[in-house]
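Quick sanity check, Cytochrome c oxidase subunit:
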Amino acid sequence: MAETIDEKLKNYRTAPFDARFPNTNQTRNCYQNYLDYHRCNKALTAKDQDLTPCQWYMRVYKSLCPMSWVAKWDEQIENGSFAGRI
């Protein structure tokens, strides 16, 4: 399985179609992938496992989200005021 994840990461170009977000506006897709990345990191770090699978979510949110949003969310996480459930 790790080979397929590594292969997908290597061949990644932009965010693929996600049936959960069929509309043109990809704001929710951006936010959900940001949350998924941090949840994945938290879960795998707690289990002391490799974080490579989480890189997929990071690449997707970095492809979809404006960097100003990401910077704001990162700052909110550091301050403990982020509204999402991670």
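Posting the structure with no commentary besides this: The CA atoms of residues 42 and 86 lie 8 Å apart.
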